[in-house]
Design goal:
With about 400 residues, the chain is α+β, with helices and mostly antiparallel strands. The protein is about 50% helix and about 10% strand. The chain folds into two domains: about 100 residues, Phosphorylase Kinase, domain 1; about 290 residues, Aminoglycoside phosphotransferase (APH), C-terminal lobe (Aminoglycoside 3'-phosphotransferase, Chain: A, domain 2, Alpha-Beta Complex), CATH 3.90.1200. It has 14 helices and twelve strands. It is globular, with a radius of gyration of 21 Å. The protein binds adenosine-5'-triphosphate and magnesium ion. The site of magnesium ion (MG) has 4 residues, from loops.
Length: about 400
């Protein structure tokens, strides 16, 4: 069957009524397009009591149009990755009710009662338990798709299932190419121009990034979400499942440090944004400290949970035992910090910035926050192997002038 874009509300309603029984053929359904993203169409369908979400992938990027074609296989990958996450870490993603290959669409649970983590951080909301839950989510995702758990044939099948060339190419360009040269796609705040020019000439930096880029391109280690920034995480500290992760269309089998790194970077981008954000300086400073303590909690939870899973499920005689797990987690931390530095760079100099910093209206003040982002990125990219644990890094960041 050939692909047909949903072009009316009735198309979306018919699709939902055909493939789910949620609304019991109710005649009073409403459809609202809620997508605030760039790539796909996202609709909420409701009858006043229940609601669900429909996400449809077109053969191109929504905000650009046919000028930027993009494989619709991304929506199959997203549906499959959501189901994998549900299996690895139950309750951590919206439940997938239906995936339809012909319509390139997913019907999934509405998590509208959760808040976007980026917004919550930007508004300095206290988030008890959220960092620990993210640690559990990461540990489960990493462990169940790693050599510590998978059989040889299951691992090969996973790699095959998640071959995602179009989306990987975007990542390779926007993370690892554009922000390390004077690329036309870059978005450099004018007061930051001299710092950007120096960044592009820094050979020590580029050598360290080269190591990370080659890992990203060729190390098929674990199943990654592939775009785990704080806009892809929804939170409700009062709920049993405190986090829900959405939008794994960039999923592929890649280096284990990439997802934790991107997430850590987005916490640190928020921390740098707080330095020049609106509001009481003491409150902003306290929130920066709470972000650093969240990062310590996240890593502690990730490590503990990973050790627990390995002790319970690893069978391979060479991969069993705490020493190999400790060594693996030490390398994970080094790689995660490096990838965090790359994510901070691309969110500062590259095409796609983050609201945590962009909300600072004054260009000079924003450049000061962006300078902090680059200072942290420089530290992480060049010195990641020297940090023996997350508390050492958070202490080093805390010592930087804008956190004192
Ligand atoms: N299951 C869901 N429940 C509630 N809201 C959702 C759900 N899925 C998506 N949304 C809303 O729609 C927005 C866009 O969704 P999503 O990020 O999946 O789209 P996208 O087009 O892939 O975006 P991007 O450009 O970031 O890749 C989310 O930020 C969120 O507000
Ligand atoms: Mg997306």
């Amino acid at each position: 069957m050939s692909f047909k874009q949903f072009s009316t509300d009735q198309d979306v309603i018919d699709f939902v009524q055909t493939h789910t029984a949620v609304f019991n053929n109710s005649p009073d359904l409403t459809v609202t397009e809620i997508g605030d993203g760039n790539i796909n169409f996202v609709y909420r369908v409701g009858d006043g009591n229940d609601s669900l979400i429909v996400k449809q992938a077109l053969p191109y990027i929504r905000v650009i149009g046919e000028a930027w074609p993009l494989s619709q296989d991304r929506i199959r990958i997203e549906a499959k990755a959501l189901k994998q996450s549900e299996a690895f870490c139950p309750g951590s993603v919206p439940e997938v009710y239906h995936y339809d290959a012909a319509s390139c669409a997913i019907i999934m649970a509405d998590i509208g009662q959760y808040r976007n983590l980026r917004q919550a951080l930007t508004e300095r909301q206290p988030l008890p338990g959220v960092a620990e839950s993210l640690g559990v989510f990461l540990a489960s995702s990493l462990f169940y798709s790693s050599d510590f758990y998978l059989s040889s044939s299951a691992r090969k099948a996973m790699v095959q299932d998640f071959i995602n060339p179009d989306l990987c190419q975007i990542s390779e360009e926007v993370y690892f190419w554009d922000p390390f040269c004077d690329h036309e796609r870059n978005n450099v705040n004018p007061p930051l121009a001299a710092r950007a020019a120096a960044w592009w000439q820094d050979d020590e930096l580029k050598q360290a990034v080269a190591r990370l880029k080659m890992k990203f391109q060729s190390q098929a280690q674990v199943l990654l979400h592939g775009d785990l920034h704080t806009g892809s995480v929804f939170v409700d500290p009062a709920a049993e499942n405190k986090v829900k992760v959405i939008d794994p269309e960039f999923a592929f089998v890649g280096p284990a440090g990439f997802d934790p790194g991107v997430l850590i970077a987005n916490y640190l981008l928020n921390l740098a944004g707080q330095a020049r954000a609106e509001g009481d300086p003491a409150e902003r400073h306290a929130y920066q400290q709470s972000i650093l303590s969240d990062l310590n909690d996240l890593w502690c939870s990730l490590s503990q949970h990973f050790h627990g899973l390995a002790a319970e499920h690893t069978l391979d005689p060479c991969l069993k035992g705490t020493a190999i797990v400790d060594a693996w987690l030490a390398e994970l931390l080094t790689d995660s910090l490096g990838f965090a530095g790359v994510e901070m760079t691309r969110r500062t100099l590259g095409v796609a910035h983050v609201a945590d910093v962009e909300q600072i209206e004054d260009a000079q003040a924003r450049a000061e926050a962006q300078t902090m982002c680059l200072d942290i990125a420089d530290l992480l990219i060049k010195h990641a192997p020297q940090f023996s644990g997350m508390p050492v890094i958070t202490a080093a960041v805390s010592e930087l002038s804008f956190c004192r």
